[in-house]
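Table 4 source record.
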Amino acid sequence: MPQLNPNPWLFIMLITWLTFALIIQPKLLSFVSTNPPSNETPTTYNTTPWTWPWT
């Protein structure tokens, strides 16, 4: 069964992951800010508790 031979596929998978992790991912992360900080204070909402009829 040639599908169980890991020789070419393991090498291709490792090269692909290394290319993604070392070359492509840092370039993509430099364009997209994951969570920019904001100076706004978080808004708090004034909520009233629900009055249950059986209590």
